Fold this protein.
Amino acid sequence: MKQPRFDIIQFPGTNCDRDTFRAVSVIAGARARFVFHKERTLPPADVVVLPGGFSYGDYLRSGAIARFSPIMEDVVRFAQAGGIVVGICNGFQVLLEAGLLKGALIRNTSGVFICKYVNVSVERRDTALTRAVPPDRRFLRIPIAHADGNFQPPADMLAELEAKGLVLFRYVDEAGQPTGDANPNGSANNIAGIMNEAGNVFGLMPHPERADEAALGSTDGQYLIESLIRSV
Amino acid sequence: MMDTKDLALKLGLTEEEFERAVHLTGRELTMEEVAVYSAMWNEHVSYKSSRRYLKTLPTRGEAVVLGPGENSGVVSIGDGWLAAFKMESHNHPSYIEPFQGAATGVGGILRDIFTMGARPIASMDSLRFGAVDHPKTQFLASGVVHGISAYGNCVGVPTVGGELDFDPTYDGNILVNVFTLGVMPKKRLFTAQARGIGNAVIYMGSPTGRDGIGGAIMASHTFEGDSEGKKPTVQAGDPFMEKLIMEATLELMEAGLVQAVQDMGAAGLTCSTFEMAHKGGVGMAIDLNNVPKRVEGISAIELLLSESQERMLVVSPKGREAEVLGILEKWGVPAAVIGHIQDEQVVSMTWKGREVVRLSPDWVVGDAPLYNRPTADPLVLAKRRAPVDMPEITANEAFEAVVSHPSIRSGAWVWQQYDHMVGAATVLPPGEGDAAVVRVNEKAPGGLAMSVDGDQDVTWLDPQTGGYNCVAESALNCAVTGAKPIALTNCLNFGNPEKPEVMLEFAQAVKGIARACTDFHIPVTGGNVSLYNESNGVSIKPTPTIAVVGVLDDVADAVPMAIRDKDLRLAMVGDERRTMAGSLLQRLKAPHLGGTPVQANPELHNNLMHFLQAAASRHMLAAAHDISKGGLAAALFEMVQAGGFRYGLKATLPGGMGGPPMVQLFGEGPSRVIITYYLEYENALFDLATQFKLDPVFLGETMADLFIIEPFLSYTLQELTVLTKG
């Protein structure tokens, strides 16, 4: 089997790039490469990751400026050609701003940044991001860290996402239920991650790259990275 | 028209200091030179009241690579790796404008670390606010936490721990001490020693504006009810620019384009030029016209005094300026060549074609005033230690007051606002261990433990014991996780040094710290002094905060504090001496503090630390936690709380333990730890303790549902969670 290649995009203000690099390469054994936002062409890749952080300081609106970075044109082209693109946290916001995913992320209902472990249910196991999640795992334990993670699409868009089965992850409690208490940021229907209709573009708020080693409290993030590797 | 003397007095110099400057210079000063002297000779930059005491702190040790005097201290942590770390105060700005004050404090300490060549990997903060019910406390606490969160999260350096307290002594003067640690390979170490005649002096970062003009001067005066009017002296932070500067600086270093570098912090451009020249024994020629400016019409004096944030001064090899500017352009960081290193040992500055500053760094830095301020008769401290009676309250009342205090109940509302996991290396995050533990390497040295600790109550009663015990506790917190303490940094937060009683507190506390450093073999690698913490004529309780860093060979050995199972055994090991003097319960319930606190016994304390390290490396402990504020009852509660109230415990106060029940439950003293372990390890653990001349006392077991300390306290876990809702 050929070694899958991951391109990791670095916007100014991206700060989860190095963690993603480590999770993908050192831990999961894939090939990873950083791509600076001023590049115009993606080096050949199987998966493109937009990692978390504060692109352009989030000063206008999270992800709003990053989508105009030179590299984004090629990312959009890559996605339209069916390439796998994953946006984590701020990267999810960039994908929404770029129109590769549908919906909107607004300020957490608490009004403040929140960093903690959460449980997320895996709604589908037949996608490029979730196929390696073991059948007996109802939910995964992965941390979140964001101030703008409250997923609030317009009602018709939400209905469409749900009807078409595009919701991939939901915040759940220890019993696997998407309760109000389990919802850390106020997201509609406890949504923590979605995909596009073609099934090749993914956005999620939890940080799988932070949950890959027992010493850090969870290895559940590896299931998602392993899924991507198997999908290549 | 204002003459130079008027300006000097307006900028905070005394008449004598102005005369001294004129005398050193040997001629009349220019207005710009007056600005230079005033910026460099205030308390915050020159340490003129504290320097003679700081010299007594032990700064040498096998691990120390760079001691005090650089942007930060640097220690060797093994296998060719170095750690740079330091703590700084941002007390005054945070009181005036909590969000920006705290945020820029984080920015400053981050720059102190990456200027050494280290990538910052962890921050902590030590926060002290006024009484919980004081009208300003809520505003200040939420603003400070928000400021730290907004800045640190954006730059992407995890805030992994710290401490939090609320005490009426800080009603008018809060304490915000921020700590950052970074790591680097040995060959990557940089300093602020400017060298190389003809080398380029390059300004990088945000253009200079009028913000923060005279900030260091403000930090050298007390608050007299007009803090509102001081707002323009607080700087505004831009964490996005900081992140770009950090990446650009590290890339410049990697490319061999940095000879020396210093952050423009307090006293901005003035301090960085004069200090870098002084450290390197060279001169600098600077053209102020080339400094990037944010506003039209800014004057030379304003450029010299501005404390605009996110700026650095870099010395780069002659002829490679274009490469430097190219990398800064890539990152979008404004920059300009503003001068060069010159042989003649003066810093000369021109403005609009005219030389406005021509001063030797030796006069400005080397010959700064040094005061031997009077200290009060130690009898004033003896008076503080007169015994005081506790009011008659039940054990339940006492317990509920202690555990509902925000220094004991979970600080999750604070640390969940901090990204404490970015970097994917946080092994013991906030609330999980006595010290935070961060992985640095796959093999030894695998991780670093760090803890920041202060105790204003004990230090007020007995400054020497307070200083001594703070070092002991911070070191013990590292040892509890299994780490070996190697060095420390500190923030010495005190009141007005012009008051003999405050100077006495300072002198005694430093003496205690120095003795502890010697006794525990932990050198000081740098720190910060914050004086004039006084409002409306009342100084704060003396509050040295100590941050010890320790090395852990393997992070898999790190011992947490949380109780996460039932049927674990509980024991207590260490010093048996307890007293109400300076305890949290005394602060909360007695009419005032009183009595004599217990000072740590060095031999016992070292033995205890060695025992804990040995037990951790042999994986004998399930959890461990030192007994500090709130005493035994609070410590047991904290272990249950850290485990999310899933498991409780039943402990029995051993007979013959001595002292009345309230002292046993809530009394405080140094050098004592609760350990939990599975029964199979009990004999081996007790044998190990005996080897270190320790005599553990069995306390009880963990269990489901209940929290019981026989025969005084009994709660369901559900009741405990209600108590902590505050």
Summary: The radius of gyration of chain B is 26 Å. The mean pLDDT of chain B is 94. The first helix of chain B runs from residue 4 to 10.
